[in-house]
């Protein structure tokens, strides 16, 4: 399948590498291709500069958001929360409409120090903001509750005996996203929380997730819903 | 031990019954004793009127918040979020200072319809509001992430193979609360998230919890941190 991944940081690199390894065509979208390739570090600093990473993943194409969106049949949004709506604007509704947008972003606000707070929460969410701004895009919020390496390899932890969630208004889009999560990435059980307003719950889980990271001393954990 | 439980609803009844069954002296605090006993239903409507419940638990005393706080060596706050600070004001700092307050409340706002939003979140929490208003009370936030029956009987679900959290500024108070959770209530592992600001995380988990309730069709679930 022709896929697009928005974002060149750790999450974008991880998703793009997995998609390429599965044999899909992958275009990674960025604001400014030349600037991304010239950048010495990555946006989140704890993974390789994109140019170094791309040398190890020569099949992955780097493109503008608009080019990547135009070529992708499905789009993974792995931009940071503050950059998500600008990235989608640059991609253009015409290149996105009718397609599934797997939204992995978190609306983290680092401006007030650590740990980050959220730029939107409680009565709204970034997932809903995206859906309102792009009503003809089939937004599915998922994967934002786990660290990048677990997103595409959940079986590395307790043989996958833990959970991931989907939120969205389009039942067929959620079913396709669920199939991708299971068949491509290896998730054993995907919990459908409901419509896109349920993105509030998974985004508001981040403050607990950040503290659990402090407790476990590793981001390589996840929740299992015991019932 | 002499214990106090603030709140006459499902959570207050459940905690009070457990404490009494363990042989502790229990005073349940309420705003107006006569009004509580005269009330036909309970505040949350899905459990017995307090007067009916008390006939089955004759050892549990009903008292004003101030009387209950004065008699209790430890206080469990099971009021609803909107009623928490007013209840503590009525109890009086003089009756609370130096004591451990196990805060189980959630700052749920039902005024905007279902599901509820939160009255405070993101950069503050009800746990912090309580600690700021009563700086000499030893606030420990816990148990707000599970349904009442699980709070005091976690082994009923997967033999207790799931987690509960504590947040608070006072390490000794958290240690005592953790001992209560384990030795009195049966929790197998209690995760210390950090200081009282980590109450934001467990309170902001509620929107996800409410949607998980919708998914599981029962409130009798909890999270296990898989690591």
Could you give the topology of this structure?
The structure is a homodimer of 227-residue chains.
Chain A: E1 2-6, H1 10-21, E2 25-30, H2 33-38, H3 50-56, E3 61-64, H4 65-71, E4 74-77, H5 81-91, H6 93-96, E5 100-103, E6 108-109, E7 117-118, H7 126-133, E8 138-142, H8 148-152, E9 163-167, H9 171-184, E10 189-194, H10 199-204, H11 206-216, E11 222-226
Helix pairs in contact in A: 4-5, 5-7
Task: Describe the overall structure.
Two copies of one chain form a homodimer. The first copy, chain A, is an alpha/beta fold. Chain A is built from eleven helices and eleven strands. The A-B interface holds A 112, 117-118, 121-123, 157-158, 161-162, 165, 191-194, 198, 200-202, 204-205, 207-212, 214-216, 218, 220-227 and B 112, 117-118, 121-123, 157-158, 161-162, 165, 191-194, 198, 200-202, 204-205, 207-212, 214-216, 218, 220-227. Strand 11 of chain A pairs antiparallel with strand 11 (222-226) of chain B, so a sheet runs across the interface.
Radius of gyration of chain A, rounded?
Answer: 16 Å
**Overall pLDDT of chain A, averaged?**
96
State the helical fraction of chain A. 40-55%
Which sheet architecture does the biggest sheet of chain A show? 8 strands, mixed
Oligomer: homodimer
Spatial order of the strands forming the largest sheet of chain A? 3-2-1-4-5-8-9-10
Strand content of chain A: 15-25%
Uncertain stretches of chain A:
none
Query: How do the helices and strands follow one another from N- to C-terminus of chain A?
Result: EHEHHEHEHHEEEHEHEHEHHE
Structure summary, number of beta strands of chain A: 11
Q: In one word, what is the shape of chain A?
A: globular
Distance between the termini of chain A: 36 Å
What count of helical segments of chain A does DSSP give?
11
Q: Given the helix and strand composition of chain A, which structural class is it?
A: alpha/beta
- Biggest interface: A-B, 39 and 39 residues
């Amino acid at each position: 399948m022709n896929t697009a991944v928005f974002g060149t940081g750790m999450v974008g690199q991880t998703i793009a590498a997995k998609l390429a390894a599965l044999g899909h065509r992958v275009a990674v979208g960025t604001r400014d291709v030349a600037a991304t390739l010239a950048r010495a570090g990555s946006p989140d600093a704890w993974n390789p500069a994109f140019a170094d990473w791309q040398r190890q993943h020569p099949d992955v194409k780097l493109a503008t958001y608009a080019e990547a969106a135009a070529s992708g049949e499905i789009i993974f949004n792995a931009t940071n929360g503050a950059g998500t709506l600008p990235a989608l604007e640059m991609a253009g509704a015409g290149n996105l409409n009718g397609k599934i947008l797997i939204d992995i972003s978190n609306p983290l606000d680092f401006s007030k120090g650590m740990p980050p707070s959220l730029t939107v929460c409680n009565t709204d969410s970034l997932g809903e903001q995206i859906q309102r701004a792009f009503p003809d895009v089939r937004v599915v919020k998922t994967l934002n509750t786990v660290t990048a390496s677990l997103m595409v390899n959940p079986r590395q932890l307790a043989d996958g005996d833990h959970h991931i969630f989907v939120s969205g208004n389009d039942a067929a889009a959620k079913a396709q996203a669920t199939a991708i999560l299971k068949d491509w990435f290896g998730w054993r059980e995907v919990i459908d929380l409901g419509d896109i307003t349920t993105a509030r719950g998974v985004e508001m889980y981040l403050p607990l997730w950040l503290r659990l990271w402090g407790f476990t001393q590793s981001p390589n954990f996840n929740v299992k819903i015991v019932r």
